[in-house]
Amino acid sequence: ADVKKIAVIAGDGIGPEVVAEAEKVLKRTEELFGYQFETEHALFGGIAIDEKGTPLPEETLKVCQSADAVLLGAVGGPKWDNNSKELRPETGLLGIRKALGLFSNIRPAFIFDCLKEASTLKPEVLEGTDLIVVRELTGGIYFGEKFRRETANGQEAVDTCAYNVTEIERIARQAFDIARTRRKKLASVDKANVLETSRLWRETVNRIAVDYPDVELEHVLVDNCAMQLLRRPSSFDVIVTENMFGDILSDEAAMLTGSIGMLASASLGEGSFGLYEPVHGSAPDIAGQGISNPIATILSVALMFRLTFGYHEAADSIERAVKEVLDAGHRTGDIAVDKRSAIGTLAMGQLIVDAM
Amino acid sequence: ADVKKIAVIAGDGIGPEVVAEAEKVLKRTEELFGYQFETEHALFGGIAIDEKGTPLPEETLKVCQSADAVLLGAVGGPKWDNNSKELRPETGLLGIRKALGLFSNIRPAFIFDCLKEASTLKPEVLEGTDLIVVRELTGGIYFGEKFRRETANGQEAVDTCAYNVTEIERIARQAFDIARTRRKKLASVDKANVLETSRLWRETVNRIAVDYPDVELEHVLVDNCAMQLLRRPSSFDVIVTENMFGDILSDEAAMLTGSIGMLASASLGEGSFGLYEPVHGSAPDIAGQGISNPIATILSVALMFRLTFGYHEAADSIERAVKEVLDAGHRTGDIAVDKRSAIGTLAMGQLIVDAM
Ligand SMILES: CC(C)[C@H](C(=O)O)[C@@H](O)C(=O)O
Ligand SMILES: CC(C)[C@H](C(=O)O)[C@@H](O)C(=O)O
Questions:
Q1: Is pLDDT above 80 for A54?
Q2: What is the pLDDT of residue B220?
Q3: Is residue A275 marked as binding?
Q4: Mean of the pLDDT values across residues A11-38?
Q5: Catalytic residue flag (residue A214)
Q6: Count of pairs with CB atoms under 8 A, one residue in A, one in B
Q7: Chain A residues within an 8 Å CB radius of B166
Q8: Residues that bind substrate, according to the entry (chains A, B) (predicted)?
Q9: A319-328 burial by CB neighbour count: b if 16+ within 10 A, else e?
């Protein structure tokens, strides 16, 4: 039988509770569709720092490398915020992306009809918003040389931002490919009027564009994009950009949908392997109370089914179940208008499993 | 008599038309308050490329250097977008900031009561929004070494982001000083979980904070700030950040107020000298039609009066006049709900001059 191996990284804060619900969805998928999953848990982030002395233990990396996909809850929290660089959860995150070759971060941002009101944007502006930010994830200023040196003006810190043609080409191709399956519009975001990396980015995207005459390409400066996302979010289809700009813009895009507790993300490399995680963070303030929203993590499983396994029917089933449960009025505290009627993490997970 | 010298750079696109109205305001201020201004026009940006072969002619720099303040319209346009780097308007902009030592860009973003509806944010979210982004303007990745080199993965482009303690200290002090005159809240934005420059930024801001025990300081990661601006804009007072983050966040902040055609900005160095300009761009699509909105440029004059000359009464008069004209229902096309009743640039300028 074709057993799919999934590395499960619960992580910190609300990570373990939301991942537990996603695992129930995996189980239910086995029953309903006859698929087989083998899950292996691994330590990562803050809990790995506490238990193993490093945010990304060798063993965890091995578990991921021998899996077909990774499901990640969330990492980080105030407990580790003042640690030295090597002992910070974020360092593990950057490390795992690089080690697994996950050069592309896919962040869909769209509106859940029943949650339109949760956005701070006017409903008529939001109407029809359905975009994907494709963020380059293993290059740029995140991974360039960093150092300090003494100068006449005191200490100086330096970060280096570098991109080569190969790195830009592969992410550009992926974005064009995704745009092709959607509304065929690609916005490439850079700061080509100032940065050399952006000029190379733009040249390279233009060269790749020749292979995608059916996709309409526009170049948008990053500052302008931050504005246009607010002014006309529904006009964007696929946005492709470098690591740092993607970090900022994908969070802005997620927030403007008002559905940040509901959005899933995928980090991909070459081939079908991927790491899937909710867009929201570890929310240490509500961890352990059983009130967190497991939907984004459950939808991350659906995204895994689509992008890594090609289990579209099962993905449909999950997404339909989520919609049904929401349409029936069930809400966790973060998305409830009337907080008193909010249900907990377990109840929400169970309702979705039952609705599949 | 104390004659103030103002270098006037009309620039490109709608620049000349909006600056012309601002000059009428200067003239009216002389009549009303007995001040004396000597204006000297200089070529800059696209028009300087066309007429002098460089975006920032020596002569223009001299005019600015011998002035007490600079009033700038807007620069740039599609005509010069594909020029080589040295022949682009933006290069002139970066050059003039550096040459004049304008290390700080002050961008107030607030709501004009009568324009609340123009924002894509819900009015109840926007309510009370009144913030200032203090952007470092002569350091960071904008001014670091840039180059290309050949690698096994094709050409590679490199940008360098550097900050030293002196650069961070002076902008931090300025932001704390501004916060002190307002609601005494400062948000310092960085990406300290990834960047070395951000870690130095945070350490330095924390050290300066000791001198400002009356100002409440919070550190916000740039991706989170892009979200929080959307979620709770009114909770921000002063935001201080480095050059690239400031570029993105100040545009996001301006756009969310819905008043981008109305916002002024100041670029300052040590001492009282400053360069003042509207936040909006050169809008080449509507240039020369006499329909552009001169209010942001007129309010830039008011900001100049406050920050460079200390002419608070005159600044009050301008700001009150703008408010009065808007309250009376007069609108240029960009802010008119009913476009048919929109008035032109000249009419708007005259109404404000008359109301002073
Ligand atoms: C935690 C941090 C290093 C990370 C990033 O900036 O990539 C996070 O913000 C994200 O977007 O996944
Ligand atoms: C034109 C460009 C170089 C400039 C910048 O990024 O600084 C502009 O966006 C601004 O904010 O003044």
A1: yes
A2: 98
A3: no
A4: 98
A5: no
A6: 178
A7: 153-154
A8: 97, 107, 135, 223
A9: bebbeebbee
Instruction: Enumerate helices (H) and strands (E) in chain B, giving the number of each.
Output: 12, 12
* Residue A227: CA count within 13 A, CB half-sphere: 18
- Are A143 and A39 in the same domain? no
Q: What is the separation of C-alpha B294 from the centre of its chain, rounded to a whole number of angstroms?
A: 15
Task: Find the domain containing B283 and state its range.
Answer: 1-100+273-356
- At which of B226, B252, B268 does a domain end? B268
Annotation says A338 is catalytic: no
Higher pLDDT pick, B334 / B162: B162
Check CB contact under 8 Å for B157 and A200.
yes
Domains contained in chain A, number: 2
Q: How far is CA A304 from CA A107, A190, A257, A282, A298, in A?
A: 13, 29, 22, 20, 10
Q: pLDDT tens digits for B82-104?
A: 899 899 999 999 999 999 999 99
Q: Nearest-5° angle of CA A347, CA A349, CA A351?
A: 70
Number of H helices, E strands in chain A: 13, 12
Query: What is the arrangement of strands in the sheet containing B185-190, beginning at the earlier edge strand?
Result: B36-41, B3-11, B69-74, B274-278, B264-268, B104-110, B130-136, B238-241, B185-190, B216-221
| pLDDT (mean) for B339-343 | 92
Is pLDDT above 90 for A259? no
Based on the domain organization, do B92 and B33 belong to the same domain? Answer: yes
Residue B165 at interface with chain A, using a CB cutoff of 8 Å: yes
Contact A78, A46 (CB under 8 A): no
Same structural domain for residues B107 and B254? yes
Strands (DSSP E) contained in A114-261 are 130-136, 146-151, 154-164, 185-190, 216-221, 238-241
CA nearest B150 in A: which residue?
Answer: A164
CATH code of the domain containing B321 = 3.40.718.10
> What is the model's pLDDT at position A161?
98
Asked which of A225, A260, A295 is the last residue of a domain, the reply is: A260
Rounded to an integer, the average pLDDT of B169-183 is 97
Among this protein's residues, is A191 annotated catalytic? Answer: yes
- Based on the fold, state whether residues A63 and A135 are members of the same structural domain: no
Q: Is the pTM of this model over 0.85?
A: yes
Say yes or no: B62 and B138 in one domain: no
Buried-state track B259-292, b at ≥16 Cβ within 10 A, e below 16: bbbbbbbbbbbeeebbbbbbbbbbbbebbeeebb
Tens digits of residue pLDDT in B280-296: 999 999 999 999 999 99
CA of B37 relative to ligand 1 center, distance in Å: 51
pLDDT exceeds 80 at position B266: yes
Residue type, A147: F
C-alpha span between A106 and A108 (Å, rounded): 6
Ligand 2 pocket test, pick from A193, A196, A225, A245 with the greatest ligand atom count within 8 Å of Cβ, gives A193
**Spacing, Cα B247 to ligand 2 middle (Å):** 7
Q: What is the structure's pLDDT at A301?
A: 98
Average pLDDT over residues A172-180: 97
